Amino acid sequence: MKGKRYTFIGGGNMARSLIGGLVNDGCDPAQIRVSDPSSEQRQQLAATFGIHTEAANLQAVRQADVVILAVKPQVIEAVATEIAEAVQQQQCLVVSIAAGIRSADLERWLGGHCAVIRAMPNTPSLVGSGATALFANQTATAPQRNLAEFIMRAVGLTLWLDDEPLMDAVTALSGSGPAYFFLLMEALENAGCNAGLPRETARLLTLQTAFGAAKMALESSDDSATLRKCVTSPGGTTEHAIEIMEAGEYQALINNAVQGAKKRAQELADILGNHNHG
Predict the structure, then answer these.
(1) What phi-psi label fits residue 26: left (phi over 0), alpha (psi between -120 and 50 degrees) or beta?
(2) pLDDT of 125-139, one tens digit each?
(3) Is 28 helix (H, G, I), strand (E, B) or coil?
(4) Which residue, 78, 178, 182, 218, has fewest beta-carbon neighbours within 10 Å?
C-alpha cells in the first residue's frame, strides 16, 4: 500500500501496535500521522517510529487517505463530528476500532455518505497475534477494503463479516475471549499450587501448556473436539478430569458467558449510538 497516507486519531496502545506493524511491513513513517491530546504521547510516538504528530485532529485528517479512529467509544461521536468536514472534503476512508460503535451511527456523525469500515481487534494485537473482524459499509470500495485489511493484518489475522450484527458475537468471542483464557490459566495455576507445585513452576507449566495447545490447534487440520479426544486415553487421568468438568456443565457455562457478553455488546452499541437522539 505504497504512497497511502495514514492518520491515527488517538495514540494509545492499539494505535502504537498498528503503527509498529505498518512500519515493519514497509510503510514510510513520513506517510503516517497521529493526533493525540497528550504531548508526552506524541513525543514518544515521534521518537519511536519517526512519524508526524499533531495536537489537533482536524489538522491531521486534512492530508489523509485513511483515518483510523483509535479512541475510546465514549468520545468517538465528538471526534467524528469534529473531523466530519475534513472527511467529507478528502473523501477518505474511515476505519473505526472503537468497540460497539455501529457503522451507520459513525457515518451519520461524519456527515453521511462516507466510506466506513468497522474493525474489532483484540488485545493480542499488542503482540502481533491479534484476531480482527472487519465490516465495510456500502460506500467503501474494494481498494478501500483492501487498505483496511492491510492495516489490520499488520497485527494478526483478519476476516470479513457480511452482516454487521455479527460484530456483537465477535466482540463476545474474540474481543472478550483473551480474558476467558486468562481466567482458565489463573485457575490452572492455582490448582497446580493446590496440588503441591511451587507457584512459579505452576505458572510456567500453565503458560507453556496454553501456548502449546493453541499452537497444536493452529497447525492441525483437526477440530478442537478431535484434538481433545486424542489427549484423552480411556480410563486415564485426562478422562477423569474432563468428566469432572463436564459434570460441572463446563460447555454450558462457556456458552452462557459468550451469550451474555454478546447481549451486553448489543446494549452498549444501543447506548453509544442513540444517546444523542433524545
Answers:
(1) left
(2) 999 999 999 999 999
(3) coil
(4) 218
d(CA 66, CA 68): 7
Nearest CA to 124 out of 96, 152, 166 is that of: 152
Residue with cell 485528517: 61
User: Residue 53 forms beta bridges with which residues?
Assistant: 34
Rg of the chain over Cα atoms, rounded to whole angstroms, equals: 22
Distances (CA, A) of 272 to 12, 107, 275: 21, 14, 6
Span 173-200, pLDDT tens digits: 999 999 999 999 999 999 999 999 999 9
Measured distance CA(74)–CA(100) in Å, rounded: 10
For the 175-265 domain, the top CATH level (class) is: mainly alpha
CATH of span 6-167: 3.40.50.720
Instruction: Name the pLDDT band for 276 (thresholds 50, 70, 90).
Output: very low
pTM over 0.85: yes
The structural domains of the chain, with segments of one domain joined by +, span 6-167, 175-265
Q: 225-234 in b/e burial notation, b at 16+ Cβ within 10 A?
A: eeeeeeebee
Half-sphere exposure of 117 (CA within 13 A, CB side): 30
Q: Phi first, then psi: what are they for 96, rounded to 5°?
A: -105, 125
Distance, CA of 170 to CA of 219 (rounded, Å) = 22
In whole angstroms, what is the distance from residue 18 CA to residue 25 CA? 10
Residue keyed to cell 477518505: 92
